[in-house]
Amino acid sequence: MKENLLGIDIGGTKCAIAYGIKENESLTIADKQMFPTTTVEKTITDILHETEVMMQKHELTPANTRAIGISCGGPLDSKTGVVISPPNLPGWDNIPIVSLIEEKTGIKASLHNDANACALAEWKFGAGKGTQNMLFLTFGTGLGAGLILNNQLYTGANDNAGELGHIRLSEFGPVGYGKKGSFEGFVSGGGIAQLAKTFVLEELQSGRIVDWCKREELEQLTAKKVADEARKGNPLALQIYETSAAYLGKGLAMVIDILNPELIVIGGIYTRNEDLMVPMMKKIIEQEALSLSNAVCKIRPAALGEQIGDYAALSIAANLTV
């Protein structure tokens, strides 16, 4: 049986409207329209307009369209469908986006934060298909997580479940999520860049030459630059990624002990640099996690790649009971 779905991905710099067709356990993205995120009022107007254009283009109606999924950065209230005040969306204070979309289209809609939406996408259509207890980690600019527990999305009392990036893993270390030594501080693009600056500065102050980073280039260091050097076999760059991988292992060991998942799916930087991180990550997990829990838990890179944002919003629609 085929089902028409619509997905709305609201980001800090751009938004997208996606049209998807779900048939049995597969989802095909049939069309997509992107546009910039500008002022609050204009962006909401553009979302409503582009959704209407997409519906007209493909002759979608309340009668032949199952649902609309909306993915957005938190904080938000998924129960009432209100975007509260995301840091990447200044001015989006208590915006009732679900009711606005439903009034405009006549189609049932649902809202979730982007990490939960990505968890749904990987669970329903990606690396987590067929699992009942799964964790998804974003591992991008920051570190977020979505939890699938007992065959359903778990969001917590007020949509704050899965904020693993806020856990402090060390008294000192890179700052992430407003905490030095946090999970996000060690395991994110920004965190790896901070680690790199520290490691490189130590070398430079000791009088050693770092041929891939001069002192004046420190502030421009990125996780990608370090990964590129690590792939060339540079010992310092490899040490930086091993440090991040060690803290990834430490954080995942806690998750394995507490939640006992059968699968952990990791996106973003991990998918591109799995080979640099797996040996140290696994070593730490084996040291720290309960052996019985670790034995049943697999760790895989995300499968949906660059299209995960589109799948995420559409997966919210697919998961909605209508």
UniProtKB/TrEMBL annotation:
Coiled coil: none annotated. InterPro entries: ATPase_NBD, ROK. Belongs to the ROK (NagC/XylR) family. PANTHER family: BIFUNCTIONAL UDP-N-ACETYLGLUCOSAMINE 2-EPIMERASE_N-ACETYLMANNOSAMINE KINASE, ROK (REPRESSOR, ORF, KINASE) FAMILY. This is ROK family protein.
